Amino acid sequence: SRGLGDVYKRQGIDDIDDDAYTFLLAFQPQKGIPIGGKELSWGATLDYQKIGGLFRSIGYQGGSADIEVARLNSQALYGNFNVQWQLSRAEDNVNDFDIPTTRATTESVNFQYSPSSPAEEWPSWFSQPSWNLSLARDARETIDLNPELSLASPVDAVSSSAAIGFTAGHPYGSWGIRYSPARYQDNTGNYSDSESQALSVDSSFQLGERFSVSPQITFDRLDDEASGISTDTRSVGLSQRIVVIRDVVDLSLSLNENKTTLSDDSQDTTSRTANLNLDWRVPFYQGLAFWLRANYFESRDETTIVDAFRTDQFYNVADNEDYQVFLGMTLQFGSQN
Asked: Is the model's pLDDT at 252 over the cut of 70?
């Protein structure tokens, strides 16, 4: 790409050249390897990309710039067992300016197993089961920092995470559970190390042809090692869809509640949201429809306050409520074949 425009030329800046490269090498055997009566299929891709920090192109508007990255991806499939693996290394400051250069190394692997046994061999609430395990690690560090030219703090941190999940069907839909631990470690001392855990359970129910409901609940916990403070968050959600009159009136409703507390009692907040969508397609005039959208938000702060001039603790109860209601109409013109 060449040129930064007339604005820069009027400021005495010449046109600037910069480049971008991308290469991709893929390998996929035509036939799998027979093992134990099944075939092992696998493949791999290696790609390299380098985009200068000053690169601009009409065909690459809004894309990432100032990055050099190499990625290796591999996938293997054996029966009902699937493995995906990725390794990448990226650096910025491609043009070697007098600014810090950061290197990021990412590794991830994902295992999935979905047995193909007939549904009648499983209990009704565990039909079509699938297990999933994911492991990931992201390391970032500053490899070139001139303290005389930059005031930025060096980066040297590692984030690691895992996730194990299970999904299955039941007579009315499906359900799943997922547990995700993670850890953040900072080796510079500028930020606190932390550990987190998340547990979520979700399900869906199709009750007849006109009513469906999807409940979900999530528990999150974040432990800050420097302060010793733990943050607990509980999120509960419920989504519903009702076909009031087939092809005429549809109603959907979603309800959510989030509660966050800190172990040192410095925060105790609850927020609730509700969203209602109602659509009416006029049956006697094709293309004409009326709709209603309603949103409600409520927040409540029940943080415990300790007053030096009082002998007891009291609650700083603060409430906030907002709601919106919209009515609208759509009219479509055109012939139907």
From this structure: yes
